[in-house]
TrEMBL record:
<dbReference type="GO" id="GO:0016740">
    <property type="term" value="F:transferase activity"/>
</dbReference>
<dbReference type="Pfam" id="PF09424">
    <property type="entry name" value="YqeY"/>
</dbReference>
<keyword id="KW-0808">Transferase</keyword>
<dbReference type="InterPro" id="IPR023168">
    <property type="entry name" value="GatB_Yqey_C_2"/>
</dbReference>
<dbReference type="InterPro" id="IPR042184">
    <property type="entry name" value="YqeY/Aim41_N"/>
</dbReference>
<protein>
    <submittedName>
        <fullName>Glutamyl-tRNA amidotransferase</fullName>
    </submittedName>
</protein>
<dbReference type="InterPro" id="IPR019004">
    <property type="entry name" value="YqeY/Aim41"/>
</dbReference>
<dbReference type="InterPro" id="IPR003789">
    <property type="entry name" value="Asn/Gln_tRNA_amidoTrase-B-like"/>
</dbReference>
<dbReference type="GO" id="GO:0016884">
    <property type="term" value="F:carbon-nitrogen ligase activity, with glutamine as amido-N-donor"/>
</dbReference>
Amino acid sequence: MLKSQIEQQIKEALKAGDRRLVETLRFLISAVKNAEIDSRRDATDEDVVMVVQKQVKQHRESIEAFKSAGRDDLFQAEQAQLEILQGFLPRQLSEEEVRVIVQDTVSLLPEEEKNFGKVMGIIMGKVKGKAGGDLVSKIVKESL
């Protein structure tokens, strides 16, 4: 399970003395535990991936803010944490792979069901955790 893998990496990082890795993984485990409390159940691997994606998005936003503010020290710290978090995400689909999935899905739908919301719902179910909603949205808009 992904959660236990993260906890094991925390132990290894503590032994190795890697402060940045320990800090990042502890923050991640804390976010996973908060998600468990919110949902009132143990986190599945899919839940953990969703938490990681949320953390990655927050770090990307922070990186942009630090870059525009000229805070290179904080930018580099956030970048290092982002790279650690991305190691827990499944391989992301390329734009071409998403394009193929969208085209296949749209071609199978009857004409009256080819609206943006319906297509997005179907495709996001297929690519959950493997492609960003912004990329899927862009490709669906181009296809319809």
